[in-house]
Structure formats: structure tokens, C-alpha cells
Design brief:
Order of helices and strands: EHHEEEHEHEE
Number of helices: 4
Helix content: 25-40%
CATH topology: Aminopeptidase
Oligomer: single chain
Largest sheet: 4 strands, antiparallel
CATH architecture: 3-Layer(aba) Sandwich
Structural class: alpha+beta
Distance between the termini: 25 Å
CATH superfamily: Gcn5-related N-acetyltransferase (GNAT)
Radius of gyration: 14 Å
Shape: globular
Number of domains: 1
Number of strands: 7
Length: 138
């Protein structure tokens, strides 16, 4: 089930984002709680996918930056269509709000990179951070 994200969901976002993956978060530079709050209330909107045991995935989009700011699914739930459903929800909302070209970045050669390629996103230039950009146009 997908529902709109709430500020009270942020601890689950942090838990999911910090799980081991091939798209690791630099633990020395954690994302401040204020960033999550601003992206959910000021810059954009988020959604969560809930399962039997609570939140197992989330997406946060930004109208301000025309981006998918975050999309993460717990490892045990990957490959079940959750990421795709969340991404579709966020892109639809951005499109409904006048955003025709959506951007995101992810780690080079990560599962996420192949996920976006499979869904037809267009690869851009690698960044100095080890990330690569992707775009999708309506």
C-alpha cells in the first residue's frame, strides 16, 4: 500500500537509507533531519510503501529542484515492484505540478542505476562524487 509520507516516518527513512547497499551513504555526513522535513513540507512531497511490518520503501520528490530527491526500498523487498510504484507516484505528482523534465542522481554501476535504465530514464554525465545523473521527460 502506498500512502503520503508524514514527518513521523522520517526515522524509518533514515533506517532504510542506512542499510548496506551498493549506493552507500557517507556515514560521516548524515542527512540532517531538517532536510527531510523541508523536502516533505516545503520543497516537495513524499510517499511510503507499507507492508506487514511497516514501512519498507519511500520516495521523496522536489518541485523546487525538479528531482527525485530520494528513493529507497529495503533489501528484503527489492524486486517486487515497490520501487517502480513509488517512482511512478512521485513522477506523476511532479508532472501534475508542471514539471516536465525530472532529474535524479545515483551511484555509478549500482542496482539503482540499472533500475532507472530499465525504466527508460536517460543517463547523463558522471559527477565527481561517484554519482551519475538521470533524466526523464514527459
Amino acid at each position: 500500500m502506498i500512502r503520503e509520507a508524514r514527518l513521523t516516518d522520517i526515522p524509518d527513512f533514515i533506517r532504510i537509507r542506512q542499510q548496506p547497499s551498493d549506493n552507500p551513504l557517507d556515514q560521516s555526513k548524515p542527512i540532517p533531519m531538517l532536510c527531510y522535513q523541508q523536502y516533505l513540507t516545503k520543497y516537495g512531497k513524499g510517499w511510503v510503501h507499507t507492508g506487514k511490518h511497516g514501512i519498507c520503501g519511500y520516495v521523496i520528490s522536489s518541485k523546487k529542484e525538479s528531482t527525485i530527491w530520494a528513493l529507497f526500498v529495503e533489501q528484503n523487498y527489492q524486486g517486487q515492484g515497490i520501487g517502480k510504484a513509488l517512482l511512478q507516484t512521485a513522477t506523476r505528482w511532479l508532472n501534475q505540478n508542471g514539471i516536465d523534465k525530472i532529474y535524479l542522481s545515483t551511484a555509478v554501476n549500482s542496482q539503482a542505476e540499472y533500475f532507472y535504465q530499465h525504466l527508460g530514464w536517460h543517463r547523463g554525465s558522471p559527477l565527481e562524487t561517484g554519482q551519475v545523473t538521470y533524466t526523464s521527460s514527459r
